[in-house]
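SUBJECT: A protein chain and its fold
Encoding: whole-number codes for local backbone shapes
RECORD BEGINS BELOW THIS LINE
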Amino acid sequence: MNDAQLLEQFLNHTLNPELMNHETHLRLAWCLLQKHPLAEAIAFYRDGLLAIVAKVNLQEKYNETITYALMLVIYDRINHSKKGGSFNDFLAENCDLQDDCIGVLRQFYKPETLFSDAARIRFHFPDRPHSL
């Protein structure tokens, strides 16, 4: 499935939930950020993920803070990319996001914040000393 087809199915809430592995999460975020301003991309990503977790009755898996923070990190990485190009180029330049995405977010968040019940339902700003 190409990027346009994947994004269309995600935005229309018709994407098969079984396709939602980690790489697909990253690819969808990247695709949205290629086509939409940051705030819109985050809203579309959030809505699409909520629709998918509702389909499979796994709402407890959704984390608002992880969703927003991941989008912000990907947005920053896209804007500082040396290569630009395709999603595969993005992955090659950002292996850490594919290998240990939560590890990347832990640079900005204390685990007790990132995985709290409160962080699941609303966005929390980074709380590590070196963060903004």
